[in-house]
Amino acid sequence: MLSQSAAWTALKSHADEMHAFNMREEFTRDPDRASRFREQACGISLDYSKNRISDTTLALLVDLATQAGVVDKRDAMFRGEKINLTEQRAVLHTALRSPDSSLVFDGENIMRSVHAVLKKIDKFVDSVHSGKHLGYTGKRIENVVNIGIGGSDLGPKMVVTALETGSPNNAPKVHFVSNIDNADFEKVAAQIDPETTLFVIASKTFTTQETMLNANTARDWFVAQTSSKGDVAKHFVAVSTALDKTRAFGIQDDNVFEFWDWVGGRYSLWSAIGLSIALGLGAKQFRDLLSGAHAMDNHFCEAPLERNMPVLMAMLGIWYNNFCDTRQYLVLPYCYSLSEFPSYVQQLDMESNGKSIDIDGNAVDYATGPAVWGGLGSNAQHAFYQLAHQGTQFIPADFIVARDTGNEFHHHPLVANFIAQTQALMRGKRVDEVSAESSLPAEDGLHSHRYFSGNRPTNAIVLESLDARTLGALIALYEHKVFVQGVVWRINSFDQWGVELGKQLAKALEPALAGETESTNLDASTQFLVDVLRA
Ligand code: F6P
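Above: the input record for the complex with 6-O-phosphono-beta-D-fructofuranose. Below: its predicted structure, written as tokens.
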């Protein structure tokens, strides 16, 4: 049992000793603290000194990672072992960004297919950008609409939003449609012209309800405006593992960009799911993204655990989650173009580690994946930071900033806010400091409202520059962090059975809502909602 293991119980008793630990006092006592708790790799610096940890905490956390077999499990993943036990699948998204020419999986050298699809993407992107691939009236493609959801939307949308200021001039603008509410499609449809629009239907399974509804709506919209079904071929491409279904939808095999069942949805932006990224940002930026992620893969595989950035971030998360009773964390980018990053990390982390059954099929008796949320600094400072600074619970936070965003205006105030917030969360403000600066009478209790406990942990993540390579490394950093946590918690981070029940029940309710059948055997609340919402 993990919770009875030596490393776990050692951390439990250490947590008791750490109750009185105060970061602000530690910084005063130990001037070397910041230089010891710092790491750098792949254009990313991580300052993790503003955490409630001592050298002993770190050593014990590394012991736990070692005891959990992180190294062996990591190597098993990279080798292509079927570590996704419940689906009997390998987990090989790392192969998608590897330059290696050979990796044999199930008797096949998968690197040949990986590189062949990448070449196909390059060729297609070039034909769209150069104007070889034209719309049905001979006009250039100016808009791309990515229709997908979950991993087939969040990753590409986050990357395109982050890097689109560096798009080549001849690249189309990429829009994203994901929501089941038709308002999402309509909003994009109002901005595009069928003659100059390419639809990318992105779905691993090609069965996801939202995506198939939106894809059909897009095709109907297109055909209604062009009055020619034949032109669909020039304007619709698909990214999927399900060739039979893309064919049934009417997309020619040549226009299907393939990937494989060993790529999980939320790990798929490196695969052909990245087609919209390559179309919007250029094939070069897509390749740079892959190479940045590969550099982080190498760091993850080569650095000793105590110097390994994904391992350190994972174990800090475990420290708070399992030993300090705080089950949330914040993702706070101070880069406007990383606005989609918190949502992306939400799916990555919560769909991967939101599990309560371990790999042996037993219920866990410890906390697993935390609730992840966040938003853009500095906006979030004027919204939910109040709770982060003075709320009754402390929430560890990842602050992310870029040294070079390509935009010098407002850069100093932006960075000053980034630093100041981590400083404020760590230092707090003591009662004597409040009194010293306040003219209000202390005896009325008015000073206490201005007191900040401080001692609230943050990681400061500084990107050398916000470019494709560094972004690739940042994404891979979070992927591996989530992986390490899953290994320690002994859960399968690569399935998502928890999303299925709602899908099943929604399908069953549709006929009753459409008035085609009477619903039976519903609980009173569900029946009430069906009655109220029936068409
Ligand atoms: O329902 C959850 C999920 O399966 C995610 O894991 C996935 O990223 C998303 O739906 C989309 O799936 P697909 O690419 O098969 O449409």
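Notes for the reader.
The first helix runs from residue 6 to 17.
The mean pLDDT is 96.
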